[in-house]
């Protein structure tokens, strides 16, 4: 049984579709990356799967259950949503904010158990946040805040993790640390992940499958080796590239070709 089945989804804003007839499945376990240029429909797809947007047509099944019929609590016990966090949250401490992820399992008026507190402490440590636990979330940098939001999602103990550009505000050290953690949880704990990424090489290195969007539709889907080809990338992104092989992972590595020298040469400089 697939973890998630997206069936002929059309969705958008003010009756204007931003994505059209999207169909794909996510098997249990593993990481699926969604990539594509700005305006391709990645965020609209993410918001529809996470139930922020109601589809105009089609349906989304979580383990053969239509997510439209699931209660908010039931959905939150199974699916954790990590959006791009643009606004500063209320004046919680880091530990208080991360702890909110346990409420789908306990309710807002129920006290946390020893198990809850252990899960919270474990994920603060995993994300390198233990020393930040008493700091106000509003005082954190963008990268620190992104890790806090991820920790909140992980304490839900979800089966499916939806992530919208979780590495956007992180330096390379924390990008690798977060994606290594997600890869570990997928392999060892059976976590299934749908992740939107802009960095094609990160998508290639960490994703088991890649879905490329273009113009609100699925342009290609498959393993990184079958999808991240020179022809496909140049067709979708309209920029010249060369594709080689990562010597460690044996997956595709994309080399972008600076055009400044060619432009200067053409101008006679």
What integer value in Å does the Rg equal? 20 Å
Order of helices and strands: EEEHEEHEHHHHEHEHEEHHEEH
Largest sheet descriptor = 6 strands, mixed
Q: Per CATH, what is the topology?
A: Rossmann fold
Number of helices: 11
Which class in CATH terms? Alpha Beta
CATH homologous superfamily annotation: P-loop containing nucleotide triphosphate hydrolases
- The CATH architecture can be given as 3-Layer(aba) Sandwich
**Percentage of residues in DSSP E strands:** 25-35%
Instruction: Give the neighbour order of strands across the main sheet.
Output: 6-7-8-3-9-10
Number of strands: 12
Structural class: alpha/beta
N-to-C terminal Cα separation, in Å? 60 Å
Shape: globular
Mean pLDDT: 90
Mind explaining what this structure looks like?
With 269 residues, the protein is of the alpha/beta class. The protein has one domain (4-266): P-loop containing nucleotide triphosphate hydrolases (Rossmann fold, 3-Layer(aba) Sandwich). It is built from 11 helices and 12 strands. The strands form 3 sheets. A 6-stranded mixed beta sheet has the order 6-7-8-3-9-10, sandwiched between helices. A 4-stranded antiparallel beta sheet has the order 2-1-4-5, covered by helices on one side. Strands 11-12 form a two-stranded antiparallel sheet. Helix 5 packs antiparallel against helix 6. The mean pLDDT is 90.
